[in-house]
Amino acid sequence: MATKTEALRRDAEALEKTLVSDRRHLHQNPELSFEEVQTSAFVQERLRDLNIPFTSGIGGYGVVANLQGHRPGPVVALRADMDALPIQEANEVPYASKVPGVMHACGHDVHTASLLGVAALLRSRTQEFSGTVRFLFQPAEEKLPGGASLMIRDGALANPQPQAIYGQHVMPLLPAGTVGFRSGRYMASADEIRLTIRGKGGHAAMPHLNTDAVLIASHIVVALQQVVSRRANPTLPSVLSFGHIIGEGAYNVLPNDVRLRGTFRTMDETWRDQAHALIREIASGTASAMGAICDVEIDRGYPMLFNHPEPTALARSTAEAYLGPQQVVDLDLWMAAEDFAFYAQQIPATFYRLGTRNEAKGWVSSVHTSTFDVDESALPLGAGLMAAIALEQLAAAPSAG
């Protein structure tokens, strides 16, 4: 007789055609953050087909569905993000994006299709668990303030509060058929920095009559590197990078203003606040010493993502039982940011990675690129493993019957 794990794995494999079809539909019809009208409607249609009650309009176009087991008990939450990116797809595949300049280049189509698969798998297993599985189909992960914060604001983690929440994300560095976990600090906070250096423009041949905002901006960029190289604890991961500089002068014209845009990332909230103060102090002070003014704006982005030890251990052990230990790997620290961190600030949480790489078929591009794609054989694993994790969490919860 097949074990419950074997039966779940078999049923997940049987869903592959549906999972691929759903993923390709979503991939062909991507929508940007805060614009996920049709994506949300598609999710709602699938939930109606499964006869799972839901509430829409959470945090924008988010959808929250609750699947009850055969008896009352604890709640476990599962999250998938739904939005796409402003990227023109370069892949020549039948399911390429139909929307000019918009693409699912971060795998959110995979996440959404997988979570719909989890709903289908658990819908046929309500006699196997006590409690509730809450499905969070979240909008706007890619844009501040982040759909997670808005869903929390709208009660996605309330009435009652889940005992844990789990999220998965594609990872093209990992081969399809593998998953990765990391306990504790995992992903960085991310803040957007805007500096405007206000000098006095004029003829480049007469710099003594001007206040050179380009030169001053250059000094500021160099001076700010001490925030990481000399002011941060060397054991604490930190990144300060500027990727945008605009000074609209000419060969022989010094501009009045120069605009800088950058990002600051770290994995400690106390140091994060201290670094913000240092950035303001150094940028303003450098500009002032050179006769200019620097306006400093820092938009606080997503917090550091912390994977709580207990749900991470549970998810990892479930993955080892589901796949075999050799298919489960350790993850390194990752300096990218993810708004799932907001959930982790509220309740025990873990965020793990689903391998999607297939070198033989050429699916190796990074996320956020125009050639990103996935090995779709990962979809049944994505759905089946998350369903298994939800069942294990409910069974392990102290209030479970």
Q: What is this structure, in a nutshell?
A:
With 401 residues, the protein is α/β, with parallel strands linked by helices. It is built from 11 helices and 16 strands. It is elongated.
Shape: elongated
Query: The CATH topology of the largest domain, please?
Result: Aminopeptidase
What share of residues is helical? 25-40%
Order of helices and strands: HHHEEEHEHEEEEEHHEEEHEEHEHEH
Average pLDDT confidence is 96
CATH superfamily of the largest domain: Zn peptidases
- Number of strand segments: 16
Main β-sheet, in a few words? 8 strands, mixed
Q: What is the rounded Rg?
A: 24 Å
The CATH architecture of the largest domain can be given as: 3-Layer(aba) Sandwich
Q: In DSSP terms, counting alpha (H) and pi (I) runs of 4 or more, how many helices?
A: 11
Query: Distance between the terminal alpha carbons, to the nearest Å?
Result: 25 Å
Strand order of the largest sheet: 1-2-4-3-5-16-6-15
Unreliable residue runs: none
Structural summary, described in words:
- It contains eleven helices and 16 strands.
- It folds into two domains: about 5-185 and about 305-395, Aminopeptidase; about 190-300, Alpha-Beta Plaits (2-Layer Sandwich).
- The strands form four sheets. The chain has an eight-stranded mixed beta sheet, sandwiched between helices.
- The protein has helices spanning about 5-15, 15-30, 35-50, 110-125, 145-155, 215-225, 225-230, 270-290, 310-325, 340-345, 380-395, and strands at about 55-60, 60-70, 70-80, 130-140, 165-175, 180, 185, 190-200, 200-205, 240-245, 255, 255-265, 295-300, 305, 330, 350-355.
- The protein is about 35% helix and about 25% strand.
- It has about 400 residues and is of the alpha/beta class.
- Helix 1 (about 5-15) runs antiparallel to helix 11 (about 380-395), helix 4 packs across helix 11 (about 380-395) and helix 6 (about 215-225) runs antiparallel to helix 8 (about 270-290).
